[in-house]
Amino acid sequence: MNHILLAEDDLRLANLIAKFLGQNGFQVSVLHQGDTVVDFINNNSPDLIILDVMLPKLDGFAICRQIRNSYIHPIIFLTAKDSDFDHVLGLEIGADDYIIKPVEPYVLLARINMLLRRKKHSAQISIEHLSFGQLYIHKTSRKVSLFAETIELTSHEFELLWLLASNAGKPQSREYIHEQMIDREYDGLDRSVDVRISRLRKKLGDCTKNPNRIITVWGKGYLFNSSAWEESNVH
């Protein structure tokens, strides 16, 4: 389920949009003041952001300027101003799209789906390797090295590592991992994901009692900790 952040100070409009997107399969978080948005993004890394231009305390343009260098996912502006200046400025500072109020729900949904598809397709084409400190993962050759030493992984272990690492910093639920790895719906009882996580941790030298490379986030799943692969983190 993709996570969308909606930053909109019109409470009625925000509730309508959040309800509509929720009915169409999205997890939606809503903020009403601009000064709370940047911290939320840094802590939660939503898959897409919908920003009202005229937010109180910090406007949408200022937020976009602050996050664009570090936030890699799509940004859509909502604006009540139908002027070329607003549109050009929004796109120049890093927005992916803009929608003029009043919002047509199905137009917004179509734009969101288009941007998410485009991002997924682009990622599939461009990402061939991932590196985090001393950890290097190459997708095509399926080679993994840690501190310049090759780590031998089974095919399933590599797929699990790639799934977690390519979503670094975002918890992946047991249900999602199970469906992706085993290609069937999770029944709530199967512990094969936990077993695979445990084996992967051991091969990557993670601490078994208190892991900090692949972290268990209670109630949410497993999280790949991108900052835990430096020399100082060897156990």
Ends apart, CA distance between termini: 34 Å
Rounded Rg: 20 Å
Physical arrangement of strands within the biggest beta sheet: 2-1-3-4-5
Low-confidence stretches: none
The secondary-structure class comes to alpha/beta
Polypeptide structure, described:
- It is built from eight helices and eleven strands.
- With 235 residues, it is an alpha/beta fold.
- The chain folds into two domains: 3-125, Response regulator (Rossmann fold, 3-Layer(aba) Sandwich); 129-233, Arc Repressor Mutant, subunit A (Orthogonal Bundle).
- The protein has a five-stranded parallel sheet with strand order 2-1-3-4-5, with helices on both faces. The protein has a four-stranded antiparallel sheet with strand order 6-7-8-9, with helices on one face.
- It is elongated.
